[in-house]
Amino acid sequence: MNPRLDSLHPYPFERLRQLFAGLAPNPQLRPISLGIGEPRHATPAFVLQAYTDALHSATQGLASYPATAGTPALRQAFAAWLQQRYGIAVDADRQTLPVNGSREALFALTQAVVNPGNPQAVVVCPNPFYQIYEGAALLAGATPHYANSDPARNFAVDWDAIPEDVWQRAELVFVCSPGNPTGAVMPLAEWQKLFALSDRHGFVIASDECYSEIYFQGEAPLGGLQAASQLGRTDFRNLVMLTSLSKRSNVPGMRSGFVAGDARILQQFLLYRTYHGCAMAPPVQAASLAAWGDEAHVAANRELYRQKFEQVTPILAEVLDVALPDAGFYLWAGIPAALGMDDTRFAQELYVRQHVTVLPGSYLARATPAGNPGAGRLRMALVAEVDECLEAAHRIASCVEQLRGQ
């Protein structure tokens, strides 16, 4: 077996299962989970219809192997969406590729980018982070370096804290904007700083933007390609953005997204994917094409999240350190120091007393010399319907009051 597998950490949800092992939740309350970021709004009917129609089509069904690069029409849909959403022009054939969800692409891109012959290779990850970044780096033979988020700057990554020798060894840098779990959006000045570092040291930037269409305040979040274009980097050198339909269109089970950016990197990535065997099924391509071409369902989906955050956040702000995020569907909440307990203990108490599941923030981050930036915080995914999220908020508030009264 590949010895690098031994370096992988348990996934946060396995750690959560172990944390709750042997605990008995309040049997008088129905379970509510805010622990997993899985969209639970209804899939648009027209997307399902496009999938069904293609499945039963003689030309789009399952009777032939699909091309790894997808159909020209699908790649044109990607390019049209990028133009509509970000005002940028890309070459659909050379600068876009379909992927089976951003998670698969994040992992695969890392394997394609990192040089296996360089034992000093570093992959920079935001901290807290999506654990695929770390696992992909480790299995590629690189060393992850964790760049802590700064609560004083709305959880923006502190790029200035990364030592020069790390930048010199970096081959890939992950950006997640809007962030998981913090919801922070990276502004143009931060992108400019990162591009300058990439030019100096030659690393590739992977911009994970799967939460870009869920926002509630002001303008839509700035994207990586958009930032590059505004700064005159229209070739998108050393930059690949990754996005997905899972959150935007409520189709997590379809596993559909795309990557776009530097044509030189995507040419090599396509070669890798040809061997990787990850072509998108024709019915999924047809449904994806339909989804990328419609914005009405995206606006309706965004409104549902806006309503939830508008009603839930004030309730939780009474008892936790929490505020409306820039974007995304998570609340990143701090536990009151007066309770005298860490995030794992609070998660246990909440589960037992109120039958509500949340994810301890420390499970989403790694310890660094400056500490674990997720310690003392909770990630709550507001993916259920409004009433269920409201009930969960009231139960969390009750739990905090119970613990204060002890």
Automatic annotation (TrEMBL):
Keyword annotations for this protein, in alphabetical order, are: Aminotransferase, Transferase
For this entry, list what GO says about its biological process: lysine biosynthetic process via diaminopimelate
Keyword Transferase recorded: yes
Cite the InterPro entries for this sequence. Aminotransferase_I/II_large, DapC_beta/gammaproteobac, LL-DAP_aminotransferase, PyrdxlP-dep_Trfase, PyrdxlP-dep_Trfase_major, PyrdxlP-dep_Trfase_small
Task: Spell out the Gene3D superfamilies in the cross-references.
Answer: Aspartate Aminotransferase, domain 1, Type I PLP-dependent aspartate aminotransferase-like (Major domain)
Q: Which GO terms describe its molecular function?
A: pyridoxal phosphate binding; succinyldiaminopimelate transaminase activity
| CDD domains registered for this protein in UniProt | AAT_like (cd00609)
Q: Which residues form the Aminotransferase class I/classII large domain?
A: 32-384
Per its UniProt record, the required cofactor names are: pyridoxal 5'-phosphate
Listed EC numbers: 2.6.1.17
Q: What is this protein called?
A: Succinyldiaminopimelate transaminase
